[in-house]
Amino acid sequence: MKVLYTLLAAGAFCALAGTAQATLVVDTGAGPDALAGGLSLDGTDSLAARITIGAGQPALIDSVKLWLADPTAQGGTFTVALFDTTGFGGLPGTQLFAAQGVMDPASGNPGWYGVSGEAWNVAPGNYWVGFEVLPADTLANGVAPEPTPGTLPAYAFDSGDGNGFRLTRVDQFGLQVDAVPEPGTWALCGLGLAGLAFARRRA
Amino acid sequence: MAHSLFKTLTLAAAVAGALTALPSFAQTSDPVIFTFSTVGDTRTQNGGAYQPASATPVNLTGQDAHWLQNSKAWGRIQREALAKKSKLMVVNGDLIMGYGNAALPVGWTEPGYYSNNTTTNGTTAAYKAENDYFKMNIQYAFWRGMAAGFMEQGMYYLPVAGNHEVQCSTSNSTACGTPPAAGSAGANTYQGSVSKFAVVGNENAWRQNMADLIIDSTRLNGIVGAVGASYSSASYTTLGTSGSDLTSTDQSALSYSFDLTLSNGDIAHFVVINTDPVGVDSTAPTSWLATDLSNAAARNARHFFVFGHKPAFTYDYSVAGGAIVTTGTGTVAPAGLDLFLLGSANTSASTKTNRDTFWNLIAQYGATYFSGHEHTFNMQPIASTSNGTAWQVLVGGGGSAFDPTPALAKNPYDRYYSWATVSIHASGAVDVNAWGFDENFDATKFLGGVTLPH
Asked: Could you tell me if B3 lies within 8 Å of chain A, comparing CB atoms?
């Protein structure tokens, strides 16, 4: 029974340790504070950026944030989604995950806003991170200031004209994506710790 | 002890899960209580490309070549304005190509479709008049059709007459007739030439096609009422025939004003002016405007928004940084109310001073002036001669071919389809924000903005 408790405690310890050690798998750096030239995000305009989750990288996406502002200082909710690349020409295709984020200008205008505490389990590969203002959302004057220190392989926008996302030629926006190891990794961690503890007892 | 540790860890995990809260949003301390948008110049021109000077010009589609409307750009702007929760859309002139003489053909009665009116053929003057009448009314109808759907989605349209609506151009039509005689006091009454001048038939056609919107109180109240505002019909004033502004024709529904009472009790006063009245093209009705603004101030109006087609100050896009035209011999010619002040047209003293008189009124009442006419974007504060500074917001990029060619355009958004969205806060502060997209219809961008105290 003591061994069982040790195993469980070690597994929980690894889980908590993994959560605390989320890794920034995508980080373009913050955009400027000046908003002129920033990309519109509202009920008509949606934005997306292509990211790559590499083999060996943490693959449980925990948070996704956009460098976002509102010139009217009203803020509001918006939707963060993850798409595969099965769209026409490799553009956003099937939506895999989605959650609602909130832009609160009192916390910074601009600032990093999006979703956190998610558990989007993805395999290594390419994905599109999308930002939309859906009918259930309230953000009306979102601006994603650019340029950013770092860039991603591709950016896309949807102007709501019914043609869906298309690549933008020169535009970009600030994106941060955090991920943690998959639960399977935690279990291995727990077993590993348990094994160490057992070996010590034997010793 | 291990059992206690396990229970502790389980409890810790449960607490960690509870801290992963759903998105919450605290109510902003100064909410926006009313939003409207404004743009001008949605028309396109006869034939050719949308943007003839573009490196990759795209020819007008069959639809747009027939109705002479840049339907793709204008459609997108309307969608964008609605997405930003605009309750009004003020369209600052040149909605249609026009430039004909839409006077009712001789011997015709309204409505023409079901009457006994007959048409003529060939090249007679009567045929030419019928052609202009049909052409301009069809252009109006197409524009109204494009707006109708958005009206049904809760955005009311306020039309402003531009030179293409009220003027006849002899290079576009052979039915213009002769320009009106010079007005009283020796004022020059048109743009220094006999090729473009406002005609009565076009002023009547404007009313025939647009007057129902000026003001449909039931419809306007229904739309603005959704955000707690209300339209005050008692304050609605129109400029009739007014000799004090040298106007000699009925200006009703061409220059008009009204109040909106917002949800916080503040009054927003909206004024639309015709900057090309028959006989006095390129002037603002300053006498009428002075009385109108004074009356609105007496009603304790807090916000003053004035809309007209022609800018008070011509924007010089050939200069980096966004200068104002100050001479009649530069790269960019004066094209607005400054035409007679800076240009070479012979005018009376009163016509020359019209621009400054107008701008002093704007500044005196803390108004913001929105215009079109130049097919580009610019917004900046401009000093008046005696009453401080006011902002001119030039949003003439509603669809027409851009005035700045790629070679001349010296500022980043000179060749952007663009509009302004105005957000009024509960505190009285007013955000004037400009948005736009380039001629390739790339992503919409925030072009710039300013927060005004009222």
From this structure: yes
Our CA-based measurement puts residue B80 at a distance from the nearest CA of chain A, in whole angstroms, of 6
Could you tell me which chain B residue has the CA closest to the CA of A45? B444
The minimum CA-CA distance between B357 and chain A, rounded to whole Å, is 33
Give the residue-averaged pLDDT of A83-111. Answer: 97
A9 contacts in B (CB within 8 Å)? 2, 5-6, 9
Cβ of B2 and A15 within 8 Å? no
ipTM here? 0.88
Instruction: Quick: pLDDT tens for B34-57.
Output: 999 999 999 999 889 999 999 999
> From the CB of residue A15, how many other CB atoms can be counted at a distance below 10 Å?
21
Distances (CA, A) of A34 to A27, A38, B191, B391: 20, 8, 41, 21
Q: Is A7 helix (H, G, I), strand (E, B) or coil?
A: helix
CB proximity list for B40: less than 8 A, separation 6 or greater = B91, B92, B93, B94, B160, B162, B309, B371, B372, B373, B395, B396, B398
- Give the containing element (helix H, strand E) for B263: none
Three-state DSSP class for residue A89: helix
B377-383 vs B389-395, strand pairing mode: antiparallel
Q: Do B444 and A5 touch (CB under 8 A)?
A: no
Reply yes or no on whether the pLDDT at A183 is more than 70. no
Please indicate whether, in this complex, the C-beta atoms of A102 and B30 are within 8 angstroms of each other.
no
Across the interface, which of B6, B16, B444 has its CB nearest the CB of A5?
Answer: B6
Cα(B370)–Cα(B305) distance, integer angstroms: 8
Segment 121-150 of chain A within 8 Å of chain B by CB: 133, 138, 140-141, 143
The CB density around residue A124, as the number of other CB atoms within 10 Å, is 11
B287 to chain A, closest Cα gap in Å: 35
Radius of gyration, alpha carbons of chain A: 20
- Alpha-carbon distance of B281 to B192, in angstroms, equals 9
Inter-chain contact A159–B435, Cβ cutoff 8 Å? no
B277 HSE (CA, 13 A, CB side): 30
Return the exposure string of A96-111: e unless at least 16 CB atoms fall within 10 Å of the residue's CB, then b: ebbbbbbbbbeeebbb
pLDDT at B185 over 80: no
Q: Are A68 and A105 in contact (CB under 8 A)?
A: no
Residue B10 reports pLDDT greater than 90:
no
Triad B231, B236, B237: Cα angle to 5°: 165
- Helices and strands in chain B: count of H runs, count of E runs: 11, 17
DSSP string, B309-346: SS-SS-EETTSTT-EE---TTSSSPP-STTHHHHSS--
B106: phi > 0 → left, psi -120 to 50 → alpha, else beta; which? beta
Q: Which residue has the tokens 């019928």?
A: B130
Q: How far is CA B18 from each of CA A80, B15, B119, rounded to the nearest angstrom?
A: 21, 5, 79
Rounded to whole angstroms, the Cα distance separating B357 from B112 reads 42
Chain A environment of B23 (Cβ under 8 Å): 77, 100-102, 115
pLDDT tens across A30-87, in order? Answer: 999 999 999 999 999 999 999 999 998 888 999 999 999 999 999 999 999 999 999 9
What is the predicted pLDDT for the residue at B182? 58
Measured CA to CA, the distance from residue A196 to residue A178 in angstroms comes to 30
Contact B331, B408 (CB under 8 A): yes
Among residues 14-43 of chain B, which lie with CB inside 8 Å of chain A? Answer: 16, 20-26, 28-32, 35
Instruction: Report, as an integer, the average pLDDT of B433-442.
Output: 97
